[in-house]
Automatic annotation (TrEMBL):
<protein>
    <submittedName>
        <fullName>Glutathione S-transferase family protein</fullName>
    </submittedName>
</protein>
<dbReference type="InterPro" id="IPR004045">
    <property type="entry name" value="Glutathione_S-Trfase_N"/>
</dbReference>
<dbReference type="Pfam" id="PF13409">
    <property type="entry name" value="GST_N_2"/>
</dbReference>
<feature type="domain" description="GST N-terminal">
    <location>
        <begin position="1"/>
        <end position="78"/>
    </location>
</feature>
<dbReference type="InterPro" id="IPR036282">
    <property type="entry name" value="Glutathione-S-Trfase_C_sf"/>
</dbReference>
<dbReference type="InterPro" id="IPR036249">
    <property type="entry name" value="Thioredoxin-like_sf"/>
</dbReference>
<dbReference type="InterPro" id="IPR040079">
    <property type="entry name" value="Glutathione_S-Trfase"/>
</dbReference>
Amino acid sequence: MITVFGEGRGFRVVWLLEEMGLPYRLRPVDLLAGVEKDPEFLAINPAGFIPAIRDGDVTMVESIAIMEYLMARYGPTPLAPAPHDPAFPAYQQFLHLGEAGLAASVYFVVGARNFAPESERQNWSADQALDVFQTRLGLVTRQLARTPYLAGEMFTAADISVTYALELAQHGAGIALGETEKAYIARTSARASYQRAMATCESRKAWFARTPAQ
């Protein structure tokens, strides 16, 4: 049984597990209460961030690395095109862009807009992070003008990666996306696996209810 520790980016992992039909359990981690009060979790990830997984003797952190591990360990799966597949370069690019270019930058915008003192919410670093997000978003918009999914005609793990980042921008930073991105999220979030993941991730579901997308 695979244990997923924490929601947040752990939603990517839960969604992937639902897509692959793998058994798992979600173990909540309350970052706001303080991970110092959660020794079981700190034994899994002493750095104290989420998500993490435990799979037998394996423990891992970093959502994209976890996704790649699960697809390699329990695949093959159409969620990860093979290296010789023409879809592979786009898949690889957007799988990582979803974190490195989109979620990682907008994360700091979310922090500034929601948790910083009022006088610091429009600080230079947050504006720079927003600019990074917007430039990378242009790559997503261009690709979606060509194909329904980021690697082409088929849904892949790259779409899990990027959908998470776009929803973080909408619900966490109040960023209004264009019609192309909204239609894309409507496609990916309509999947039964996404709906099951949302039902499992109760904190995420409640957060979405409190912060409707622009």
